[in-house]
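Sanity check

After download, print the first record. It should look like this:
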Amino acid sequence: MKDLTVRSEPIASPTAQALIARLNAELQGRYPEEGANHFRLDPQEVAPGRGAFLIATLDGTPVGCGAVRRVDDGIAEIKRMFVDPSHRGQGIGAAILAALETEARGLGARRLVLETGHRQPEAIALYHRAGFTDTPAFGEYVGSRLSVCMSKDL
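Expected structure tokens:
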């Protein structure tokens, strides 16, 4: 692979906002139903000591992102995972996820949870390869027929 870096960046940065906008557009296309998308992630949830927002760059070009936030004692949630479609299949998602796991451990997390959707088979496959298993819906995803919730012990 070329020069891939994964680093922390404020969620309010222009680069982060551009990647999040691309993620939101993709999700809106896959899930056009009213109320189907869970886009919320407040900046304070990924502030130092509470979480992290990471950006992956390939040869200096931003190609992906992901976040982790502490949600309970010993539990952290993966949020806003995205890799530009033109760069998928190159291990970038796995690199972001591994970096997020490291961040979660640093927050004291012993368990990771996440939500994705039935119409994202690429994401489901990535999470299964990384050791996540299907788990009952949690939090805001309870009752969502489109959600797939997963967890992993760290």
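If your output differs, re-run the checksum step. Summary of this record's structure: DSSP finds three helices and seven strands in the chain.
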